[in-house]
Amino acid sequence: MRRSILLASALATTLALTACGSGEPSGDSSADADASAKPSALGSLTVWVDETREAAVTTAAEAYEAESGVDVEIVQKNFEDIRADFLAQVPTGEGPDITVGAHDWLGEFTANGVVAPIELGDKAGDFIPVSVQAFTQDGQVYGLPYAIENIALIRNTELAPEAPKTYDDMVAAGKKAGTKFPFLIQSDGDKGDPYTYYPFQTSFGAPVFEQNDDGSYRPELALGGENGEAFATWLGEQGDEGNLSIDISYDIAVEAFAKGQSPFVIGGPWMLEQFKDLDLAVDPIPAPGDQPAQPFVGVQGFYVSAQSKNALLANDFLVNYMSTPEAQTALFEAGGRPPALVEAADAASEDPLVAGFREVGASAVPMPSIPEMGSVWSFWGVTEASIISGKADDPVKAWNKMVSDIEGALG
Amino acid sequence: MSRARYKGAEAGSGTFSGAGFAVKLVLIALVDALGVFGVLAAWRAGSWGILAAMVALLVAANWVYFTKRALPLKYILPGLAFLLVYQVYVVGYTGYVAFTNYGDGHNSTKEQAVDALLVQNERRVEGSPALPLTVVEDGDGELGFAVVEDGAAEVGTAEEPLVAAPDATIDAGAVTEVPGWTVLDRATVLQRQDEVTTLRVPVSDDAADGSVRTQDARTGYVFQPVLEYDEAADTMTDTSTGVVYTPNDDGQFESADGETLPVGWRVTVGFENFATAFGDERYAGPFVKILLWTFAFAVLSVVTTFALGMFLAMVFNDPRLRGRKVYRTLMILPYAMPGFLAALLWSGMLNKSFGVINQVLLGGAAIPWLTDPWLAKLSVLGVNLWLGFPYMFLICTGALQSLPGDVYEAARIDGAGKWRTWRSITMPLLLVATAPLLISSFAFNFNNFTLIKMLTGGGPRFDDASVPLGHTDILISMVYNVSGLDGSAPRDYGLASALSIVIFVVVGVISAIAFRQTRKLEELS
Lengths: 411, 525
What we know:
The structure holds 2 protein chains of 2 kinds. By secondary structure, chain A is an alpha/beta fold.
């Protein structure tokens, strides 16, 4: 008797739970069940975005939902977590259909087979060439680009009315301004910051990897040799003179510039938010070497999962809805990163600061997306930091040891 | 909840009546309902392992709580279930991964790797146009594409290459109607999207001309596969060069001259990971240093925190001190702060040029707290002392208050001084109570990844090593680095699991020995 009560109540609760469960639009495993249970629902898309892009993608998703009747579920994640989580979850079938990501993840994503190519067709021509190029590997496009970002020289026009032509000009102008720092460039303690220092390095003619004619990289180190040694020597000198310091972190650099403690800071559009009260100009980065100072350009975009059960929807959403000027402009307004779509970029360039970054970006080089890049970062920054801080007595020796260590790690 | 369950269990084991039984009934019904829901969900997702485990747990739970013969189990079953799920399973899975090559390039199953290779190596035929496309269905339910090329409509299926369909209706550039075919509406297309995206309609009878496929059911493109998979022979063939790739033992397709295709899959590799862990010469030198530092760090952390915690506990245990409660509350504050946050704050405060310690407390000194090898070690220990002493303070306070007063009285009568009393009575009695906690504290600090990662990141780097490891790296942060989990090397979960198992063995052995020693201590008292 009592057992039957138990059975009955267990059954009732299970039924109630099942009912609740299948009511949720929580994609993945229950998506197939939903589709068969409710013929009116056309399926659902799961999209991973980070905090800064959530609102903009939600707007585009709502437009898509209204027109196609598809559920789009936006999942907010930390940008730093997306790369590893996407790699781990796609093979299990629990991953999203679409994720936001940076182009330099591409090498790892394709080597692990977690992304599917996207056919942009004629739309490819509507984008700034470097953005599509960055998402291209071996002739296939793997992502829909939406933003291009690079660093440049941000100048406080009150303290320095003219753009410096060379590195020495900049230091001289900074000293003349009488501020606490002649110019600011961020580092990360003894881990260094090779990304931000890269334009200085390229001006000495020492890019990190050899580049093919189509702009892609091949895993042959190019940062060694005479040019690399010249850069290392220069780093040591500037560290001794106190122009470069590894103790200036991102926060310290931004705060000092915002307080008017320096006329120049080398940084990206993501800093501008904090400099609202200042009169600014964005200029090319002055070169300490005899070649142009080319920063890295990073492209942000959307990837489609190779295991997506809704590949059709995912491609439709990206190619036909996220590539519109409205969607790209909304993303620009949400994140402040210049759009990759030419039409949206032109509109955004009405702002002289955005135009300034775009101009510097036009001559920039894409950040390598080959998986070998991962092995370079950790040696690279630490060596730069130890040269700047004077911990390494002989810059050239330290630099050459770094080159051989990286070669050892690449195997 | 747990208290209610205990009550229910007690009542149930005694008599079959009363409010207790009703509570038990409701709780078990709830557990069963959740369990059955879980079983159904696992069924739907096709996760048979989870399904079997859930059924077993459910049956066990019902049997235990309705039989009269399993009284002890009634108390420990929930804990046992959680132990199985959260500990035994995790350890078992780590053990399994340690014997595979799971990592970069071997991220998934063979089936998925084949899919990925095929999809990555299907190329759009150069110069081919974008074709406005409509999905159609013939009388037998077979799907086909109707495309518009140069203003003329063509229809075809996977079997039948595209043929002209002059009587089709074209509206706004796309086919809207074809006699003999049903044009599928958007909803139907989406329901059958798997079929649509995998459909390849040949352009002509010659396979070399390629075939039309679509990704969004709106536009089609002509594609040509570069790799072809032969399921029967289990080989990949490059159609442009004719090279045949066969699967090798490492979970990759390999050609006769040793060239491999990029995407691989997970296979078991035996003890290879363990061999790699100890076989790489570049790691040999740093490994010894890191091992020594790990032991020094774990032991010193326990000793210093325990010493300070015990000292403070004894001071604040003195009844003559006023406002003890306030002091005690203040002492516990560092314990209330999340460890990773505290470590981050400290790393800021210890910054050489801008940190509070140098700037404010030391009047602008430039002491390289985190960048000098020895000072960095000192800083790590100091911060860990700050983080850890409240815990020791808490347990020592508790233990001190439970010490019997009569032994002290006896000591006083025997004429023992303060030092003697402390050494011969307080200390041993305190150790009996706290030794197991000291051992667990050692095990915790041995693997205190958060502190190292957040405070120094392992730095400053070894100058003489060729691997990105540093003076404050401990074994677990070395594992994180070696296996590429920090992104500085290709990710290798197999290697990471193998090294974790090695650390597990080390900590397990030391703890076992230490517990044995503690037992001797107990016999003393």
